[in-house]
Structure formats: C-alpha cells, structure tokens
Amino acid sequence: MEYTVNQLAQISGVSTRALRYYHQIGLLTPKRISSTGYRIYGTREVDRLQQILFYKEMGMSLEDIGKTLNSPDFNRLKALKEHKERLMEKRMQLDMLIENVKKTIESAEGRMDMSDKEKFYGFKKQLLEQNEKEYGKETRERYGEKTVEESNRKFMSMSEEDFNKMQAVEKEMIQAIQDGMAEKDPGGEAGQRAARLHKEWLGFYWPSYSKEAHAGLARMYTEDERFKAYYDKIRPGAAEFLRDAILIFTGK
Amino acid sequence: MEYTVNQLAQISGVSTRALRYYHQIGLLTPKRISSTGYRIYGTREVDRLQQILFYKEMGMSLEDIGKTLNSPDFNRLKALKEHKERLMEKRMQLDMLIENVKKTIESAEGRMDMSDKEKFYGFKKQLLEQNEKEYGKETRERYGEKTVEESNRKFMSMSEEDFNKMQAVEKEMIQAIQDGMAEKDPGGEAGQRAARLHKEWLGFYWPSYSKEAHAGLARMYTEDERFKAYYDKIRPGAAEFLRDAILIFTGK
DNA sequence: ATAAACCTTTACGTAACGTTAATGTCAATA
DNA sequence: TATTGACATTAACGTTACGTAAAGGTTTAT
After folding, report:
1. How many structural domains compose chain A?
2. Long-range contact list for A199-204, CB < 8 A, 24+ apart?
3. Among A19, A36, A97, B232, which is most buried by a count of CB atoms within 10 Å?
4. Taken in order B120, B123, B129, B130, is the CA torsion positive or negative?
C-alpha cells in the first residue's frame, strides 16, 4: 500500500504538518517522492511511524526517538529504563513543587501576612537542596566536603560564624532526638528540647517564626521522602518522632 | 540601594540575560535608566524580583506571574490553589506515563527479543482502552455497542473474522475460568484450559508468543487495577485465579 | 473548463531565556 | 593620560514540535 501525507495522517492520527516535520528532521522519510513532488509513504514507513508514536507516547523527545530507532544495536530496554528514570525524576520535582505550593497555601491560610521575603528564604533553601541533590555527590567527590559546604554557606549568604552555630544546633538537636526516642515520649523533656532546638535551627533559614509554618514543616518531614530519609538516618522513626515533638511543641 | 544588572543578578541568582528579558517583556522594569543607558534597579525592584522568583519556583509562567503581580485585587491564595490543581493534573499524567513505561519494561524483560511491533500492539490496545475509558461510555450511549466495537476492530486493523474469533475465544475462556473457580484449582483441567485459551486469545494481540511475556501479563492482571477490575467482573477473585492458572501453565 | 480537494514550500509564532557578536562605558593602573 | 579589563548595551539566531497562514501548483470530478 502507498499513502500520501493526508492518507497517512488519517490512518495514524497525526497531522500532516507533523509528517512533513518528521520528514524535515529526517525522522520519517517517505519511501519516494512522486514526479510532482508529492510525498509517498509505504508499509515500512507506516511501521516506523507506529514505532515513533509508541516512543512518543512514552514521552521521549523526537531526537531521542530518532537515535533509538536508527541505531540497530541500541538497547531498547536500557533506553526505556533510562527514560523511566528521567520521568521519575521529573515527578519528584513536581512533587516538590506541589509540596511547596501546598505549604505556601497552608501558611497563607494560617497567617496571611507572611511576607514574600520569608517565602524567598524558603525558596533559596529549596534551590540549595535541589542543587545539592543534582550536583552534590559529584561535587563532593571532586572537591571534598569543605568546598561544598562553603559554597552552600555562601549561597545562603550566611556568615561563617552563623554557619558553625547552625551546625552546632543541629548536632544538639540530633542528640535530643536520640534521647527523646529512648524515652519514647515526644512530649517529654528531650523531645521538647529537640523541638525547641529545631525552632532555633529554623531561625537560620527563616527570618521570622510562626507556629503554623513550623508545624507545617514538621508534617512535611514525614510526608516528603527526601526529608524523611534524612531524619531517619539518625534512627528509623526519627522523622515521625520529630514531627510529633514539634506538633506538641507548637500545639498544632 | 541601587544595583546594576550584574549586581542584581549576583544577589538574586538569576542571569543578566533573564533580567533583560524580564525588562523586555515588562515583568520587571528598572527603577531608572542611567544617562548612558544602564539599567538601574532599586529596593522595590529587588522585592518584586523575589516575588517573581517565588512564583516561578511554583512553576508559574512568566505571563501568569505578571498578571498575578500586577492586579492589585488578585487573589493570591486562589491563584495558588488553582495552580496547585494544574500541577496535580500534570502529575497524574506523568504517573500514567510512568506506569506505561514500567509495564513495557516488564514485558520486555520477560523476553528480550520482543519486537517493537509487539510493543506497538500492546500500546495500541492500551490506547484503545484508554480511549474507551474516556469516551467509551458516552460513545456507546450515542452510537450503540456495534459502532464502538467496529471502530475498535478497525483501530486494531483486525479483520471482522478475526475479531469474531477473538471474541469467541474470550467467551470460552471466561467459561473456563468459571469452571475452574468452581473446582478451586488453577492447576486443574478447567484452569489450564483457561490458560491455554488465554494464550490463544493473546495471539490476536501479539504476533508472537513467549512464556515469560505471558506470565508477565498474568501478574499484571492482579497488579493493574484496570485489568483486575475487568476480570473480577466475571467473579471476584477471577484475576488471581487466571494469574495462578497462567503461572502454572507457563511454569514460571 | 472549472471548481473542489489535495499537494507543495516558505515562514512566522510559541516560552524563556542561552549564546555569540559587535560595540559603548567605567574604574583602575602604567 | 592612555590603556586595559570588567561591565554595559542592543541585535539576532537557536532551542522544541509543531500550528497556522499564505501563495501557489496538481489531481479528480463534474
């Protein structure tokens, strides 16, 4: 069977413009061109178009699809897996975004006068974390821990002194969490000490404090896998413990 | 404080090009232009930039950000909520994509020589199902069962004869599942008959057969809610029964 | 013959900048 | 003071996957 652009468009469901574009970028070349310049597609082209649509549906870029289809030794399974990884990353970023928006909404609802400046601080922190996640490991390996932390500190325009203080507070807080978990009571002395230290630690990131925002962050610690993993490194269940302690502390 | 582009770029973290672009589209206009044409930003501009970055981080388009920041009576909370909804929708789409890719990988792992053609068949079927789910009910109501099935058949480029055969096989298989469930033995005669019929039925979708892929599909029947629901309509537990029967049949 | 339907290429528009390129300005130094 | 290096400007193309005209040939049917 032979088809013109329109016919192929009909049976495949893509637009004629798309077909011409695929021709233009060399993704799908017609079987032949008629004497009058018409594009003529054959069965093989139909098959290839089907494949193209398949990978497209998977969310691949046309460039990647072309590479995939053109290299005979291309490992399709590997490509799919890599692609899946990319999609998952995208989803994680989206999740973070949603979390952020959610939290902002919560804060705004709880306390409408939260200044944009504060929002900006939170935003900076986010940026830092994301950056860290993307390049942190590599950078650490290449330049060592110090450089990374220095850059982080610089990024947050924090003084060396503040940075050290912050780390000291965090360390103290971790100790308090451990003590509190031994007591098994987030409302107990150690648990509440942890919450207080967490508030203090927060002060390095946020220019002002509110119970609502604090409680919101606490909830996030158990809902966001990334944060949960960080705290649970201390000891499994640490994220939940800290959350409970903070919720009691803030009375929310 | 007054800043030049570079200085503002430094403290904000955005590129100078971005700042010029923001100026160009009227999103962030400098406080004034120096006699020599330099852009000079003031404190108010810094604040506005922070807000811009904030909403940008939320994933908003620059156009939307402009609208948000420029309308004094704009309900920021409402805007955020709407924006959240959009993000959630995006995520759902992503989730569907990921599911799709995952399943393809699973199938492919079951039998590495699975050709793209087969994948495409599966894909077509998926598309069909999705389409069916979205518009099926409505279409059925409007045009009746026949039209829908005819269109499906056409979509899968199956002959009328094949289509009828396929339906007959499916019907037989359903009967076998019912018999097998009465026997309560997926390894029994009826159960294995169901598995064999399922293999035959599969032949209409897949141009070639492998035990691995068959077993993979069987597992999917219980993991994918959509499929599970379809088979459990026969009788609750039918999906699991069919899975077990197929796993025994394929010896996987 | 003429119109309707179908084909072609060319080219601008999209979002948010990155990236040259060509050129003018400012601050510090030889 | 002249030069140099850092910093500023505008202009304009490139990116992705086409949508959407516009201007004009080709095929088919009447």
Report:
1. 4
2. A199/A249, A200/A169, A201/A166, A201/A169, A201/A170, A201/A173, A204/A158, A204/A162, A204/A165, A204/A166, A204/A169
3. A19
4. negative
pLDDT in tens, B92-117: 767 767 776 777 676 666 533 333 33
Domain enclosing residue A84, as ranges: 75-110
Tens of pLDDT, residues A182-214: 989 999 999 999 998 888 876 665 544 567 667
Reported ipTM: the value is: 0.45
- Is B90 within 8 Å of A94 when comparing Cβ atoms? yes
Q: Do B84 and A91 touch (CB under 8 A)?
A: no
| DSSP SS3 for A40 | strand
Same domain, B96 and B210: yes
Chain B window 119-148: which residues touch A at a Cβ cutoff of 8 Å? 119-120, 123, 127
